Amino acid sequence: MSILVVGGAGYIGAHVVRLLQQRGEEVVVADDLSTGQAARVGDALLIEVDIAAPGAAESLETAMREHAVDSVIHFAAKKQVGESVLRPAWYYQQNVGGLANLLTAMEAAKVGTMIFSSSAAVYGMPDVELITEDGTEPRPINPYGQTKLIGEWMMAASERAWGLRWSALRYFNVAGAGWPDLGDPAVLNLVPMVLDRLARGERPRIFGEDYPTPDGSCIRDYIHVLDLAQAHLAALDELRDPVLAEEGAVGQAFNVGTGVGISVKEVIEEIGAASGLDVTAEIEPRRAGDPPRLVASPEKIGDVLRWKAEHGLSDIIRSAWEAWQAGPRRIG
Ligand SMILES: NC(=O)c1ccc[n+]([C@@H]2O[C@H](COP(=O)([O-])OP(=O)(O)OC[C@H]3O[C@@H](n4cnc5c(N)ncnc54)[C@H](O)[C@@H]3O)[C@@H](O)[C@H]2O)c1
């Protein structure tokens, strides 16, 4: 039996592929390489397919049968919030359409287990200290977040219709690298944005210093990508075990975070400490849609999947810095 990792050539997916291979699992990757890179999957079999294209359901079904797939881990999506506001139909087509094709193929090929990359973006702008899955109502404020919530609904409907066993992992702020060759290649999140500015000889930017937080900058919950990857293995093990799965993991969404809030200023200071560079920042106006604080309660994932983050901010930043320095835009 094998595990199909859809979007496995991307930043997070490649970490899961490597961990699965390290523990001896058979892994097949499906990816259109739109933002991923073939080199990231190592010697795992890579099937190049755009899951949102016409005919994709049939090719995915064939691949599932040929490789005796028993579980799917689904990362493949477009993930830029701003772009999703400008191109909503395309985001729905890619993220919702792609998932529809994947679920069609799974039902036809009788593949019954699925782990889905959801996001803290499903919550929108909650005004709470700690976000809980069952106490904080999801209210996404942009098409990207909407596609993730709809994805969860589609899996819940597939569970009712044909017995899909699924879990959604709602990632908070992912950063760092498990290996220096698997750093985040995109400049979309805070840590790569700061490193990108430093690489250009520019000062890092802070968007808003007048939030109601202790140092005035926004607070987020930073999760090491390797801890996040481990959470997928924990969910997979639970879903594959019929007894454990019925006890709690099936049909559930889990926050993947630490419960610890860290400010933008603290992250930038830590980058200064790891790199030895001057990280004096420029203060810019607030950006629309940035809530002051987004921190996960990790209680549910701890209770049900027995998963807990092992790495703190210094590990995250040190590993991100090492990965940046191993790449083509080395600083200094
Ligand atoms: N990185 C984050 O901070 C973060 C936070 C929350 C949720 N997520 C979600 O996690 C998942 C993975 O994110 P990532 O950071 O690794 O992004 P990524 O862009 O590095 O990875 C996505 C992968 O999916 C592939 N892909 C995209 N569209 C495809 C399509 N139509 N057909 C086939 N392959 C396709 C890309 O080529 C890429 O390899 C995404 O679903 C994203 O929305 C990411």
TrEMBL record:
<comment type="similarity">
    <text>Belongs to the NAD(P)-dependent epimerase/dehydratase family.</text>
</comment>
<comment type="pathway">
    <text>Carbohydrate metabolism; galactose metabolism.</text>
</comment>
<dbReference type="GO" id="GO:0003978">
    <property type="term" value="F:UDP-glucose 4-epimerase activity"/>
</dbReference>
<keyword id="KW-0119">Carbohydrate metabolism</keyword>
<dbReference type="InterPro" id="IPR001509">
    <property type="entry name" value="Epimerase_deHydtase"/>
</dbReference>
<dbReference type="InterPro" id="IPR005886">
    <property type="entry name" value="UDP_G4E"/>
</dbReference>
<protein>
    <recommendedName>
        <fullName>UDP-glucose 4-epimerase</fullName>
        <ecNumber>5.1.3.2</ecNumber>
    </recommendedName>
</protein>
<dbReference type="Pfam" id="PF01370">
    <property type="entry name" value="Epimerase"/>
</dbReference>
<feature type="domain" description="NAD-dependent epimerase/dehydratase">
    <location>
        <begin position="3"/>
        <end position="257"/>
    </location>
</feature>
<dbReference type="InterPro" id="IPR036291">
    <property type="entry name" value="NAD(P)-bd_dom_sf"/>
</dbReference>
<dbReference type="GO" id="GO:0033499">
    <property type="term" value="P:galactose catabolic process via UDP-galactose, Leloir pathway"/>
</dbReference>
<keyword id="KW-0520">NAD</keyword>
<keyword id="KW-0413">Isomerase</keyword>
